[in-house]
Specification:
Blueprint lengths: L2 H26 L3 H14 L4 H13 L3 H14 L4 H14 L3 H14 L4 H13 L3 H14 L4 H13 L3 H14 L4 H13 L3 H14 L4 H13 L3 H14 L1 H10 L10 H15 L1
Helix pairs in contact: 1-2, 2-3, 3-4, 4-5, 5-6, 5-7, 6-7, 7-8, 8-9, 9-10, 10-11, 11-12, 12-13, 13-14, 14-15, 15-16
Length: 287
Amino acid sequence: MNYLSECLLEAQLEQHQDWYEQGRELYDRGYYEEALNYYEKALEYQPDDYKIWYDRGRLLEKIWRYGEALDSYHRAAKNNPYHYWSWYEMGCIALEELQEYERAVAYFQHALKIRPEDYWSHYKQGEAWRKSKHYEDAIACFARALNFRANDFWCIYRQGDIYREIGNLEQALLFYERALKIKPADSWSWYRRGNILQKQGFLFSAILSYNRALEFDVENDLFWYEQAICYTLHEDIDGVIRTLEQAIALRPDKYITLAESKIIFAKMREHEEFKIILQNLKQKNQC
């Protein structure tokens, strides 16, 4: 290479670095469209720079251009196949934004070849398997993730979801109770626990579990409604009225319709008190 060529190359490298650094500064300040222009200028000088392709992908995610972000991460990974974060971010886009679960699994598997002990890629791969209903593969991924974070709430909670989905209520209950040891104030774990106990016929225990869920999320209409179902099965009209009133107050149209039409409330509708209160609630919500 002659002296003139060396000078030209050095000038191009400096120009490339200037565009890139200005782009990063604009990105940090939240000027995403402007930053994108600077990244693309930098790539004109150094089209094989994986760092710029990666940062460009992060920017495109920020402005919800997920397909283009995925392409940008692909270019980053092509130029540096050992860049963990490019593979990981591709997996996240495929999983969370595009709902392309098989692609997500493949991306996370690439990431794990680079960082085999990374909790997040094991967990996210498990999520991709779970959402595509490959439950055995999902459980295996969550188990591997727990090797690196033994008390991770979400790995444990999601296994409860899987066992509930396949009808293994005993195992599901165990996982939700494990999750509650980690996050005792998690309303949905209490709700799921209550729901399983209700299905198993332990109505009083289910009611107590729904009560705990409501301690942490008192405005969740579903929690009140499921309590009303338990009281109905227990033939406790006072409990039904008290909890159904709360559900109706939060979502009138939905729960008035269910109270009037669901077979499970048929016996309750025979009670004059129930009919009067339901009629009063209808009138109140029509005003």
